[in-house]
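Could you join me in thinking about how sequence relates to backbone shape in a protein? We need material for that, and I hope you will provide a protein of your own picking. Label the sequence line and the structure token line clearly, so we can match residues to local backbone shapes. Would you write everything just below, so we can both look at the same thing?
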Amino acid sequence: MFLSEMETEALALTANTEPTPKALERVTKLVGLDLARWAFGQHELRQRAASKFANAPEMLFDREALEMASHEAVARYHASLFPRGSVVADLTCGIGGDLIALAQRGPVHGFDLNVDRLRYAQHNLAAHQEKAQMSQQDSADRIGDFDYVLLDPARRVDGRRTVHIAEFLPNPLELLDQLKATKLAVIKLSPMIANSDLIELGGCTRFVSYGGECREVLVLLGTDAPNDWSAVHIETETRAAGNSDLYLPEPGEIADEYIFEVDPALIRAHGVRQFTEEHSLQPLGASLGYLTGTAMVTSPWITGHFRTQTTLKLDRKAVRAWIRNSGANLDAIKAAGEKFDPRKLEIELNEKGSHSRKWIGIVYKAAGNVQFSVCERLPRI
């Protein structure tokens, strides 16, 4: 049993119950205050976890491990990098998000120093009809026993998130020689980590897109690791070439007929330059997040499509007059490399009244001025 009888009872007593003071008092009388708080906390975490796990109502979590856990679709991508049937060591398995996907692929051995997380991982595996070998020990001592390993180091110091690799636990740089000696080692990191750290790690670097967000960066090391720097689009299983060198466009391009919002993973992988060349596009102003062109482009790496209605210098009086004459309101304002309060500007530019027709405003700097392109949002293609 992964849960004690009292834990199981506490979960049953708090199921579908709001954590009001009266409810907490009632459950406390039956199982004690600590278990009552734990059970109500589990129901809250399960609600939060629903955005990552389809089977969240049957799983167990702790707050920090849930925040670190990959979406289950991203975890399946992690698992797909390893050959089916080969044993994979999950060196920092936590509550088992990746462990589940790895077990669905083949044999897996999970390691963690936290006994509660190991219990939760075992419970979560069982909730998915999967199992794995589990060990409560420092996995750094066992890397040499495996050809294939996954490492997701903790990225918090005294409760705060950090992007400094030397503060990760364990520090991947200290395990580098061991990881490179495997056939394949996959390291999951924050996409905010510095390029210099990624270059120091070496190997293959992939920035992962899911749901229109850059969720993480993976570093692949080992004798069987590929050699590329790219972005990966999970939903379409598409990869786009990137570069470790940052491309900074020359500012000055004003909107053409179409504007395109770019997937953050492609931007982070420094793949925008090659993408613009392939699709005959130009950066919008000095921004890498928005591109412009004369023809419609369909690609997984485009997260928003807009047709330009007009472009004006950001003169509030002139913009308000154009919007008023169009018989529409602004639905939203987006900033392409410009810092301002979009909600405040939206209030300043909108006329009173409600209109069924809605425009999108995109603010950017080009041709020596701050420009305001009024656009129609097009359906996602």
About this structure: The chain has a mean pLDDT of 91.
